[in-house]
Structures are given as C-alpha cells and as structure tokens.
Amino acid sequence: MAEVTVKSPLSASLAHDSAHLHVTGAARYIDDMPMPEDGLVAMLLSSPHPHARIIKRDATNALEVDGVECIAFADHIP
Question: Which residues contact 22 (CB under 8 A, 6 or more apart)?
C-alpha cells in the first residue's frame, strides 16, 4: 500500500506582512499616531475593592469634569 502524505495549511508557516517592520522598529503603532483634533479617549475605571458589592453608582460629579463627554456602565452595553 502506498503511503499518503497530507499537507495541511494548519501546520504551514505563514509570512507576516508587517514582520520586517516590527523587527526593524519601523512599524507604526496606535501610540505613534497623533490624536485627531476631535478625538475622544476612553478610560476604564474599576472598583478598588474587587469583591465589594456596589450598591449605588452616581456619575454626576464625573460628568461635570471638563472634557468628560459620557459615562457608560456595564448595563449600557448590549
């Protein structure tokens, strides 16, 4: 019986399009790009008490801070 050799793309090496840029330091990362004039920055705030039960959330003071556009809680995200 003849031996069957199966070539699978799962085990083949693939060339990474930007590999040369990464190893030479020429790759552009998001932090290398300037912020657009009308750009927004998202910040994540978590509780300093990981096992605490949060009873009340009040973002009133945070919304009054200059530059704050929106406050979103987990229940605002579908």
Answer: 16
